[in-house]
Amino acid sequence: MKQDKREELDMVAGMLQMVSTNMNTVDQNFVDRDSHSHCRANKIDPKKVLSEVMQ
Q: Positive or negative, the Cα torsion across 24, 29, 35, 39?
């Protein structure tokens, strides 16, 4: 049972990593297009998100 949970968390972490990478890429493109813009999306830290979910 514990093993399944760990694999599930690994999968979720992988998906979060992908999403965060995509968002950071989109964010970078936005900044490249509008260099005067000071608003930057906060980069997502999958480990931080996971630890918050696990609490």
A: negative
Closest CA to 42 of 24, 26, 15: 24
46 Cβ neighbours under 8 A, 6+ residues apart:
13, 16, 17, 20
Question: Per the structure block, which two tokens stand in for 26?
Answer: 């989109």
Confirm whether pTM is higher than 0.90.
Answer: no
Report the SS3 class of residue 41.
Answer: coil
Let me know: does 50 contact 9? Beta carbons within 8 Å: yes
Query: 19-49 pLDDT, tens per residue?
Result: 877 776 766 666 665 554 444 455 667 777 7
- Judge whether 49 and 16 are in contact, CB under 8 Å: yes
Two tokens, residue 2: 């514990």
